Amino acid sequence: MRRRLPHFAAFCLIAVLYLAGAFEFIEYQLFDVRFRTLERPAQSDLVIVAIDPKCISEIGVWPWPRELHADLVDDLIGAGTRQIALDIDFSSRSNTIADARLAGGFEIEEEHFTARSPNLTPDVETGIGAWNDQELITAIREGLRPYGSLIIGPPMPFSQYRGMSDRDVRAIIAYLRSVPEISNRIAESEYRMPLPPAYGPPVGHVEDVSPDDQVAYGRYLAGPLAHCMECHTPMEKGRFDYGNRNCVGGFPIPPGGGASVLTGNITPDRETGVGGWSDDDIKKAITRGLRPDGSQIHPIMPYRFYTGMKSKDVNAIIAYLRSIPAVRNQVK
Ligand code: HEC
Prior knowledge:
By secondary structure, this protein is mainly α. It has helices at 5-19, 24-38, 53-59, 66-78, 96-103, 133-142, 158-161, 166-178, 214-225, 228-232, 242-245, 279-288, 303-306, 311-323; strands at 46-49, 83-86, 106-109, 113-117, 190-191, 235-236, 239-240, 252-253, 261-262. Bound molecules: heme C.
């Protein structure tokens, strides 16, 4: 017993020192060594994402909006990554859209419906793999399915998609057919309201809009393709009021949700809209989510999808926005 006493005393001393934090320094050193030995040439299939002060200040908010992580994962998977380790802080406020981006399915809960966005991958059983091009075109532009419950409900923006040219809708379909098949059965949406039998007469053929007419082309981009108008136009009796209040803002996104954000007035009104903004200011807002005063626009405004837009296309959208009636409407 006596011979063991020194061991016991040494053990107690170490335990006391450990509890007092005396070894923290050594632990940090060990962390360092571990990370240094982990360093290896970049590989395409394993990516460890660390977040440094530079990117925190570039994004401008911390914790990051949750969908940023979803985007990062999508981008990395797109680049062929198989394993991703993220330094994630999920303490940012959750909202349906951001969470859905991470969960894969998209559920939009509103008073009159619970809409679930379906699987659009080419999986035959659970996706659109069995649909032919014409069936897909009709579904995208007219909201009519070939099988099951025929009419597709809101919030699919058919009033805009009806104007999508044949060439563009076919390009979208070609893209959908190119994504990896994923088997993921999504439950049907539930509409606790009557849906119309159709959203209008058959669309038929839609010609391309020529980029030579900058305003008309910008209107086409801001409508059927980038649907700026839809988020930025309030509704009147369940319909977007493009006639009187096109792009005046104040529409909640997601509509009716508790954590929704109001869209801005993007008409040329100088005081309450973007009339006083330079082309470059508007461009920064569209492609980078920055206001002229440098403040960050909420990422629910999909500027991250617009980042890759060609200058010519952004300029056409700006020309279109400058052409619509200026409406005074102070949002917020
Ligand atoms: C999914 C809905 C949605 C779409 C689509 C959308 N926006 Fe927005 N946009 C918003 C929201 C919400 C805000 C306000 C966010 C905030 O207050 O931080 C906003 C803000 C803006 C602002 C800043 C306005 C201000 O006064 O601060 C501009 C400019 C803008 N959007 C232009 C566009 C253009 C142009 C398009 C199409 C290329 C577009 N938006 C598409 C939702 C959308």
